[in-house]
Design brief:
single chain; alpha/beta; Rossmann fold; 4-stranded parallel sheet; 11 helices; 38% helix
Amino acid sequence: MSLLSQKHLLGIQDISKADIRLIFETAKQFKEVLNRPIKKVPSLRDITIANLFFENSTRTRVSFELAEKRLSADVVNFSASSSSTKKGETLIDTVNNILAMKVDMIVMRHPSPGAHAMLSKHVDAQIINAGDGTHEHPTQALLDAFSMEEKVGDLNGKNVLICGDVKHSRVALSNILCLKKLGAKVRVCGPPTLIPKYIESMGVQVSYDIKDSLAWCDIANVLRIQLERQDIKYIPSLREYSIAFGINKSLLNSLKKEIVIMHPGPMNRGVEIDSDVADSEHSIILQQVENGVAIRMAVLYLLAGKKE
């Protein structure tokens, strides 16, 4: 079988367009498996995978765990809230102790940007980044782009809007990197306080006008306001954010075309997106969730084939 160019999946910036295409083609095959009565294949029957989540997560952790079990891997779940890191043990020691139990792959979410890259230099296991602070979330970007292509076809030349709390979003950074590699035109929109200063250097447009941005785009990926990452207030109130940047049905109806609406979740309904938009025919939010399992199955399968 074809293999990824990298031993780990640390971030979108480390993989090639050919890698992305290979992941998508493999995910299509696994999506067919997921629609069968028996949704399991023996591909990773001899592989043990540890899920290490040092930050709270429901959707990503469940999606990875389901992907691993659909591939017949042995799965170990590790919760940081009850771990020895709380007692002062280093991340490398924690992981090495887990690897001593003959674990082959590590899926990790960690609050520190770069934790996965550092770990990959010190431990003998394949590492998949399930989110590192406000840095990257590569599998989310892959499933988002895969879902977009499923809906609108080739993304080359398509206009994709990323709106909301771009400053604190690892999803935004990974999405921009992935979309640019696939030839899409990208614009970010939100309050000036939630748009990073460096963002234009990544080759994206910046706008502070949500109506103009929605009229420009083919696809809008709506981000959550991440209050838990904001040590100071970046917006006056959620109500004022909703009035200025929230996406509602009347705003979509005012456009002269139909656009695709996405959200990586979890949603703050009534803040960045109204229910009548999230649950509308424009939305592919549930397809994103479904595709997340197939994409993560593809990543796990391809990296397992890369194992030395």
